[in-house]
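**User:** My hope is that you can spare some time for a protein that puzzles me. I have put the entry right below:
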Amino acid sequence: MNRRVKMNRTYYLAIACIALTLSIVAGQERFELMPVELCGSRVCNENFARIVGGSDANVTRWRWQAALSFVKRNKTTNQIITKKFQCGGSLIDERWVLTAAHCVDWFQEKGPVRNFYRPQL
């Protein structure tokens, strides 16, 4: 079998897999959000599938949410060189933020990552 025929078969197989995936996803029902009383989130119109025409929230509006950012500083001046959003999290105590494992899986040592993430209010 020549190379061109193999590539064509691979191409058609990839297209078929994508089409199958799209048909499965399109056939799924929309999930329902948890009631406001259970999660503390604001009431949303059920027709909204994503944020469209939103606006920035007041800093004190969602007090339990945290943004984890990676900050690179100049070693001599300690000034911030770059600040990049890493992940989100939820405040579960005065000193603890709950986040997903992939947000800190790059950290190889055992123990807290307090030297890498510092609160900024």
Q: What stands out?
A: The two ends are 64 Å apart (CA to CA).
